[in-house]
Task: structure prediction
Amino acid sequence: MIFVTVGTDLPFDRMMRVVDSWARDHDRRDVFAQIGEGGWEPEYIEFTHFLQPPDFKRRFDEASLIISHAGMGTILTALLCGKPILVMPKRASFCEHRSEHQMATAKCMCELCLVQVAKDESQLMSMLNHLPEFIVPGRIVPGRIGPVASGSLIDSLHDFILRSPKMRSAETSVITKRS
Result:
């Protein structure tokens, strides 16, 4: 099953139209989408506007591929679950989001080899037409992440916080108050 999600903020009709056309052209009946509140609804794929968290998790777990906007929550969930993910960033210039931050997210995640990125509709259609390259049963996704931060990252953050001037002054005021 392919699970498509546009996130909860704003609809992403541009991406959904491509996925719906692709499903029609390839007679794909294994696509389910969470489409948000928009003015357009798919004709060839099963969809809902929103999913409750348990239903979202079930759909995510059942999927062999995630197709999504470039939202960090969805990307991190895919990496945590070891699911291949194909993202297409929402664009503020198309009134799909409030800023172009998803372009930066997609670029960074792509450079880290953590996601596949379609920059526009034609690239998304091309990538969908070559799905066997993305879906390999049993394949470990290269960017899979663990459920907790590494010890070295936690230690580095702890040291950084303790070295910050605000923390030193707060620590000093606590010591002064105790004296």
Summary: The chain has a mean pLDDT of 82.
